[in-house]
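Need a sequence for this fold. Nothing fancy.
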């Protein structure tokens, strides 16, 4: 299986976990020491913090929100053996309003498969 196919699958699992409101599954797609920077500048450090913050979001302000599955152009740029930069359009729908973003990830190959080790979300200006 190609790296591009594996990364697309990882992005799809991320959207599936978000759409199910499953913070454990969402956090499980990140490495133990991942860095996660949200659109508002909030920085979560580590899988446990990513899971906890998303549990709060999924149970509260983002309950019922939907993340778009990957579509269109996904840039996967090799950085080193077993490490790639991923840039994709994305976004979430909250209360019927779609919030478009450009997102970037660093993904690394682990014994459990590809996982994200960094994430940055930048909202697209309207």
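Here you go.
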């Amino acid at each position: 299986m190609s790296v591009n196919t594996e990364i697309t699958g990882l992005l799809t699992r991320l959207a599936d976990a978000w759409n199910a409101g499953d913070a454990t599954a969402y956090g499980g797609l990140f490495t133990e020491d991942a860095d996660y920077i949200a659109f508002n500048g909030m920085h979560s450090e580590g899988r446990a913090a990513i899971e906890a913050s998303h549990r709060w979001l999924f149970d509260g302000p983002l309950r019922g929100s939907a993340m778009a599955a990957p579509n269109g152009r996904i840039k996967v740029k090799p950085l080193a053996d077993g490490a790639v930069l991923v840039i994709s359009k994305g976004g979430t729908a909250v209360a019927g309003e779609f919030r478009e973003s450009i997102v970037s990830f660093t993904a690394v190959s682990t014994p459990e498969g590809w996982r994200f080790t960094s994430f940055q979300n930048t909202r697209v200006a309207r």
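For context: The beta strands are 30-37, 43-45, 66-67, 74-80, 83-94, 97-110, 113-123.
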